[in-house]
Amino acid sequence: MKNIRMIVSYDGTSYNGFQTQPSGNTIQDVLESAIRALSNEDIRIIGSGRTDAGVHARGQVINFQTNSRIPAERWTYAINARMPEDIVVIHSDEVPPEFHSRHSAKRKTYQYTIDTNQYPDVFHRRYRVHHYAPLHVPAMREALNALVGEHDYTSFASPQSTQPSHVRTIYEARLADGDGRLDIFVTGNGFLYNMVRIIAGTAIWVGEGKMKAQDIPSILVQKDRTKAGPTAPPQGLTLLQVEYPE
Amino acid sequence: MKNIRMIVSYDGTSYNGFQTQPSGNTIQDVLESAIRALSNEDIRIIGSGRTDAGVHARGQVINFQTNSRIPAERWTYAINARMPEDIVVIHSDEVPPEFHSRHSAKRKTYQYTIDTNQYPDVFHRRYRVHHYAPLHVPAMREALNALVGEHDYTSFASPQSTQPSHVRTIYEARLADGDGRLDIFVTGNGFLYNMVRIIAGTAIWVGEGKMKAQDIPSILVQKDRTKAGPTAPPQGLTLLQVEYPE
């Protein structure tokens, strides 16, 4: 039995998110169907975590157990021949039996991208949220900095979250100010349901002056979702990287 | 009567090219339909030139004559409210009556983008052509340089071209070597049918070693389409900019 790991990149626009669900049409469904066809086994894959409908990934990590004789590195080539054009496996390797793409993950990095051009850039409309209006970047940076550390992020999680604990650690939350775009990069040891989208929505509110960066510590302490900003739209979000111990 | 000019950006993936044609579904159709609805006039727009099905634009230029009282600068806002998400007007202004977006154009610049990653970048798949294989960049640059100047480009035009003369001037043809991508930028006083795509296809052949950069002068002299490389796929091509006299 081999434990195969894959790094998967996808444009989530047309899918109901990563994880299998009753309404179908998920990234997991597409991957499992191809892996089953190649291995002739009833394989279930494990993803590093869900991504919502419309959310993208550059470096989603999955793993699965197989008796297939396909060499680990060969899986990439084999599976890509069966992928639609919006899902690409960019790497595959064999990992120790105990590797679990979700439980073993140590750090995840997400990117949230805002198109700040006066009129939307049509070439990135599926991957950026258009927001034309002056955004106060230093205030947004200050708000993001205030979120770094170990905190209970209940105020920044969907009330639908079923996690027993809402304590997580954000190692870094930074804003890159580019040509017609703002990119928020958030790295943490784990994220709650909608957490990065709520962080992005809150940063945008701070940038618009609807909320103050200095209020973030108090918002965290209140553990009340209604105190933070709105949940920013899914299409601006990309799971960039999942890191594991060496 | 005002002469209104607009700069238009579009993702050409879903259209049968810029120019109105019997099968419909063109960029021109969409623009004219919105302009007619706003002006209540039977307006025809003039584009700086055609773009093929699947070809994109960042800076297509159009103009039209109207008696509408909509202020020139206000057109951008008005028309974007009626545009699908893959067409955006990024600028509008009033120009002198004699301005003609095709006849007045002095220089056009096209970009052709090749995705050189081992596996295609899903986020740019609609705007780049995937080509994973070592491409010899210095040879490609030499080939592009050999195309600069005033030449008869019959060897680099579709045999379907109906232009009376195939003499054009290329001012610049350069290759930018980026992170997982190659960009060919070609600036000229005008381009023949499929010309930039044939230049791109030829540059790729030179990069693959299927053709030599030193052969370009002889290919030009022969005025024979079969001597140049293939016509590269449309989705890699973007009309970047059209320039006019001050």
Automatic annotation (TrEMBL), chains A, B:
<comment type="similarity">
    <text>Belongs to the tRNA pseudouridine synthase TruA family.</text>
</comment>
<dbReference type="InterPro" id="IPR001406">
    <property type="entry name" value="PsdUridine_synth_TruA"/>
</dbReference>
<dbReference type="InterPro" id="IPR020095">
    <property type="entry name" value="PsdUridine_synth_TruA_C"/>
</dbReference>
<dbReference type="InterPro" id="IPR020094">
    <property type="entry name" value="TruA/RsuA/RluB/E/F_N"/>
</dbReference>
<dbReference type="Pfam" id="PF01416">
    <property type="entry name" value="PseudoU_synth_1"/>
</dbReference>
<dbReference type="InterPro" id="IPR020103">
    <property type="entry name" value="PsdUridine_synth_cat_dom_sf"/>
</dbReference>
<feature type="domain" description="Pseudouridine synthase I TruA alpha/beta">
    <location>
        <begin position="143"/>
        <end position="245"/>
    </location>
</feature>
<comment type="subunit">
    <text>Homodimer.</text>
</comment>
<feature type="domain" description="Pseudouridine synthase I TruA alpha/beta">
    <location>
        <begin position="7"/>
        <end position="102"/>
    </location>
</feature>
<dbReference type="GO" id="GO:0160147">
    <property type="term" value="F:tRNA pseudouridine(38-40) synthase activity"/>
</dbReference>
<keyword id="KW-0413">Isomerase</keyword>
<comment type="function">
    <text>Formation of pseudouridine at positions 38, 39 and 40 in the anticodon stem and loop of transfer RNAs.</text>
</comment>
<dbReference type="InterPro" id="IPR020097">
    <property type="entry name" value="PsdUridine_synth_TruA_a/b_dom"/>
</dbReference>
<keyword id="KW-0819">tRNA processing</keyword>
<feature type="active site" description="Nucleophile">
    <location>
        <position position="52"/>
    </location>
</feature>
<protein>
    <recommendedName>
        <fullName>tRNA pseudouridine synthase A</fullName>
        <ecNumber>5.4.99.12</ecNumber>
    </recommendedName>
</protein>
<feature type="binding site">
    <location>
        <position position="110"/>
    </location>
    <ligand>
        <name>substrate</name>
    </ligand>
</feature>
